[in-house]
Specification:
Length: about 475
């Protein structure tokens, strides 16, 4: 989780970046930042909070230049402190470099220990800083070559944007685990985690970066190269939950995919109901597909308070529970006396759905049948979607047990094959998707020690 954006060759590039980041705000609400360059200097500002809180108008005016990049952060690796906010800006023997990262580097702890032993001093506990140290160590060579040399050493899911005084480099990991799209605003090239950022600034979506592709953008234009052999394992969870429905990712529109998932859910997992309700906002597309396929009317049975950020973002379980209550309300006149088919995109801890089932019953629903438009989420993601293993409900409970846990009359999920059908694949296809959180089939090696090692003050017993 996290969102990145970068643009080269427009006046007031920082201001444009600001609007793009607002459109990417759903990808992280904990911190935000922008770095801008005018050909000679990089200036940056970052802080904890929403884009609109962190970046005031006066601040944007100080970020002068026609090159800029920005980041919105959800802390996947490293704690939520301002040192871990991005872009990270450092001075190196090559000049200034700003870096923003979406994803998670699975071998960052090992690399960090090796770098520290070799004399590197780290300022943050974020895995992103590892890339900067690797970059600083690359020999005398053009900037983009040094970036390639550095990233060849890291493993995991990553979309990276790097800014120099006069150029911007952006790249996608060999599996394409994290999305990155290319756009054009007039003649100016831009990159963004999701195409919805281009819509927000009036830019044209050109294409997705390919897995293993790097682009270098200067005022003179764009060059592209393949820095690693592509081995596509795109993150299916971007389509299920994370991305905005108006984004197109790797050739699929997110809303259209969700709707097909809902249709397949109705086809393979019918339920006896009078109305279909989706959990706003992320499940509305799937619920509308379910309603269309089943012929059961879609109703607005849940209303969302638009001014509450995503519940998951709250750090403690207690705060999350309170968050669900503040965020959603059941509409009594719609659900009372009705059998409800409740469609949601996923169950992670089970907090949200349990509370919603309870709410619907309190509002008079006679039955609540829960249908989930993805498979049971059983395995932690190591590539940037933050979910700790012990908190995953499906990791320890069968579907029947989960049904009891959440208080539903029935519960069903899509299988991995059914989910892939929504993208047009059948069981004979080699899926170009990662679905490790459902299947446990990880596209990279997962190191024995994980991101939490980065935060341990003493790392005795862990050797590089
Ligand atoms: P939970 O209450 O923990 O079961 O959260 C599940 C709900 O949070 C789902 O309905 C999704 O809409 C949303 N969600 C799923 N995965 C994530 C994630 N990795 N981060 C934040 N929210 C998520
Ligand atoms: Fe996406 Fe799941 Fe793979 Fe993580 S494990 S990259 S959430 S599909």
């Amino acid at each position: 989780m996290c969102g990145v954006f970068g643009i080269v060759g427009v006046p007031k590039a920082a201001e444009i970046t600001y609007y793009a980041l607002v459109a990417l705000q759903h990808r992280g609400q904990e911190a935000a930042g922008i770095a801008a360059a005018d050909g000679e200097r990089i200036r940056a500002h970052r802080g904890l909070g929403l884009v609109t809180d962190v970046l005031a108008k006066e601040t944007l005016q100080q970020l002068a230049g026609d090159l800029a990049m920005g980041h919105v952060r959800y802390s996947t690796a490293g704690s939520n402190t301002v040192q871990n906010a991005q872009p990270i800006v450092v001075g190196t023997h090559r000049g200034q470099v700003a870096l923003a990262h979406n994803g998670n580097l699975v071998n960052a702890p090992r690399l960090r220990i090796a770098l520290e032993k070799a004399g590197s001093l780290f300022q943050s506990s974020s895995d992103t800083e590892v890339v900067l140290h690797l970059l600083a160590r690359a020999g005398e060579m053009p900037f983009a070559d040094a970036v390639v040399q550095a990233v060849r050493q890291v493993r995991g899911g990553f979309a990276l944007v790097l800014l120099r005084e006069d150029r911007l480099v952006a790249l996608r990991d060999p599996h394409g685990l994290r999305p990155l799209a290319l756009g054009q605003l007039g003649d100016a090239w831009c990159v963004a985690s999701e195409s919805c950022a281009f819509e927000a600034i009036g830019a044209r979506f050109v294409r997705d970066l390919a897995p293993g592709e790097l682009v270098e953008i200067t005022r003179d234009g764009l060059t592209s190269r393949r820095w690693a052999e592509p081995q596509p394992r795109l993150c299916v969870f971007e389509h299920i939950y994370f991305a905005r429905p108006d984004s197109d990712i790797d050739g699929w529109n997110v809303h259209a995919v969700r709707k097909r998932m809902g249709r397949l859910l109705a086809k393979y997992h019918p339920a006896p109901g009078d109305i279909v309700i989706g959990v706003p906002d992320s499940s509305i597309s799937a619920a509308s597909g379910y309603a269309e396929q089943s012929g059961i009317p879609y109703e607005m049975g849940l209303i969302k308070n638009k001014y509450i950020a995503r519940t998951f973002i709250q750090p403690s379980q207690e705060m999350r529970e309170a968050g669900v209550r503040m965020k959603l309300n059941a509409v009594r006149s719609v659900v009372s006396g009705r059998r409800v088919i409740l469609v949601d995109d996923s169950i992670v801890r089970g907090t949200t759905i349990r509370r919603i089932v309870e709410m619907l019953r309190e509002a008079g629903a006679t039955e609540v049948h829960v249908r989930i438009s993805s498979p049971p989420y059983r395995h932690p993601c190591h590539y940037g979607i933050d979910t700790a293993e012990k908190q995953l409900l499906a990791a320890h409970r069968s579907v029947v047990q989960m049904c009891t846990d959440i208080g539903a009359d029935s519960l069903a999920f899509l299988s991995v094959a059914e989910m892939m059908e929504a993208f047009g694949f059948d069981e004979t296809s080699a899926y170009p998707f990662c679905n490790a959180c459902f299947s446990g089939d990880y596209p990279t090696e997962v190191e024995a020690f994980d991101k939490f090692d980065l935060e341990r003050p003493a790392r005795e017993g862990v050797t590089a």
